[in-house]
């Protein structure tokens, strides 16, 4: 006995935009190898009787992808039961919008920036250790050293003699501890004084954002330069950030800077995921007693700002040594108080990100950003 409902469905199917989107969700954009629906390229789907129309957005007018995309999309939609005719429109961003733009070559589910109000609080140390700890959980992690003037991430990861592989305009980041790493320190000779300003600085950041072939990442960690100046502002606005982690030390002066930094991110509508208090306390190597050298700032700050304290990392000579020898403490001494605190912080960040939609997913590897305006 044939299923009558099944037959009925076959003879008079009603097509919904969701059916069409499901079919188009199998069409891959050949350049980035992801489906055109999750790339946000399909819009205005309309179905009427057996006729379907929709628009595909292209990055540039006259893109060579138009013909293959049209063919694949048409075939996919015609395979939906009941579809008799397909009309595909193409749309591209206006030329003016595309001229002088920086294309961010990035396919990362989440981008997390590590920021601090001032220098020397251990921001790079925290960024490196969080990134390594995240990679150790099996995630695909990249670390971008955004500190153009004092790039010390390569040293901290034992990569200071590493040369990134370049192919044409594309730069392939070297790996350490399962991380892909890119830093200005890998692109210029270490003795070259990086005191660039204006156009050269502009060019450097542009290159770091546009030409590095990260591949697909779960998380890109960005070590921002300290403070709240132009470079920080530009970098944070140029990246599809999921959030920021602030690093501070417990002194009053550092706390005031963190409050200022947090305020800047709030004004930019960027979520602050919490902060890490570094050099929180000192464990006496003789008696094991914890000493809060700089006072109990972090907890008070957490209450005052209403933000989670993601971890308290003690002052530990092993942390500095690990940084100088290219062996991050989460690897060299994972169960030391510092290693443990940093791994816990990474775990908390990881679970926050898991429950967050990806701001980058709307246009991964495809986003067109306005010209970075640093001059
Ligand atoms: N918890 C810590 N214990 C001991 N030394 C630390 C700790 N955190 C950072 N350092 C050391 O302090 C110095 C500054 O840290 P760094 O991460 O470069 O700071 P920032 O990036 O904020 O300028 C480095 O020599 C680093 O090894
Ligand atoms: Mg630094």
How would you describe what is shown here?
This protein is an alpha/beta fold. It folds into 2 domains: 13-94, 2-Layer Sandwich (GMP Synthetase, Chain A, domain 3), CATH 3.30.300.130; 102-370, Rossmann fold. Helix content is 35%, strand content 26%. It contains 14 helices and 18 strands. The strands form 5 sheets. Strands 7, 8, 11, 12, 13, 14, 15, 16 and 17 form a 9-stranded mixed sheet that branches. A 3-stranded mixed sheet has the order 3-4-5, covered by helices on one side. α5 packs across α14 (337-354). Bound molecules: adenosine-5'-diphosphate (ADP) and magnesium ion. Adenosine-5'-diphosphate is lined by residues 116, 119-125, 152, 226, 278-279, 313, 315-316, 319-320, 323, 338.
Ligands bound here? adenosine-5'-diphosphate, magnesium ion
In helices, the fraction of residues equals 25-40%
The CATH architecture designation of the largest domain is: 3-Layer(aba) Sandwich
Which stretches are poorly predicted, pLDDT < 50 over at least 5 residues?
1-12, 95-102, 362-375
Number of domains: 2
**Global geometry:** elongated
Q: Tally of extended strands?
A: 18
Largest sheet: 9 strands, mixed
Task: Note the gap between the termini.
Answer: 76 Å
| Number of helical elements | 14
CATH H-tier superfamily of the largest domain: P-loop containing nucleotide triphosphate hydrolases
| Broad CATH class of the largest domain | Alpha Beta
């Amino acid at each position: 006995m044939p299923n009558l409902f099944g037959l009925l469905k076959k003879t008079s199917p009603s097509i919904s935009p969701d059916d069409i989107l499901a079919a188009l969700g199998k069409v891959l954009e050949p350049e980035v190898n992801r489906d055109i629906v999750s790339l946000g390229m399909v819009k205005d789907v309309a179905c009427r009787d057996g006729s379907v129309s929709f628009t595909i957005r292209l990055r540039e007018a006259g893109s060579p992808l138009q013909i293959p995309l049209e063919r694949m999309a048409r075939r996919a939609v015609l395979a939906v039961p009941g579809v008799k005719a397909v009309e595909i429109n193409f749309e591209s961003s206006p030329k003016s919008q595309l001229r002088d733009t920086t294309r961010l070559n990035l396919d990362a589910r989440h981008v997390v920036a590590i920021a601090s109000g001032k220098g020397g609080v251990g921001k790079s140390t925290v960024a490196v250790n969080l990134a390594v700890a995240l990679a150790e959980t099996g995630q695909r992690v990249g670390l971008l050293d955004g500190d153009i003037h004092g790039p010390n991430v390569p040293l901290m990861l034992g990569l200071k003699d590493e040369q990134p592989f370049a192919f044409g305009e594309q730069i392939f980041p070297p790996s350490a501890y399962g991380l892909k790493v890119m830093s200005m320190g890998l692109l210029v000779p270490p003795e070259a004084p990086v005191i660039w300003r204006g156009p050269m600085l502009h060019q450097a950041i542009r290159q770091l954002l546009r030409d590095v072939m990260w591949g697909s990442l779960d998380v890109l960690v960005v070590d921002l330069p300290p403070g709240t100046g132009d470079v920080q502002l530009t970098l944070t606005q140029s990246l599809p950030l999921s959030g920021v982690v602030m690093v501070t030390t417990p002194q009053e002066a550092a706390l005031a800077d963190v409050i200022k930094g947090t305020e800047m991110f709030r004004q930019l509508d960027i979520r602050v995921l919490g902060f890490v208090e570094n050099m929180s306390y000192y464990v006496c190597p003789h008696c094991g007693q914890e000493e809060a050298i700089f006072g109990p700032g972090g907890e008070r700050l957490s209450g005052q700002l209403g933000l989670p304290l993601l971890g308290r990392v003690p002052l530990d000579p092993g942390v500095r040594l690990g940084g100088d020898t290219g062996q991050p403490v989460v690897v060299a001494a994972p169960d030391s108080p510092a290693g443990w605190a940093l791994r816990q912080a990474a775990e908390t960040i990881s679970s926050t990100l898991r429950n967050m939609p990806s701001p980058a997913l709307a246009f991964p590897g495809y986003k067109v950003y306005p010209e970075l305006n640093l001059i």
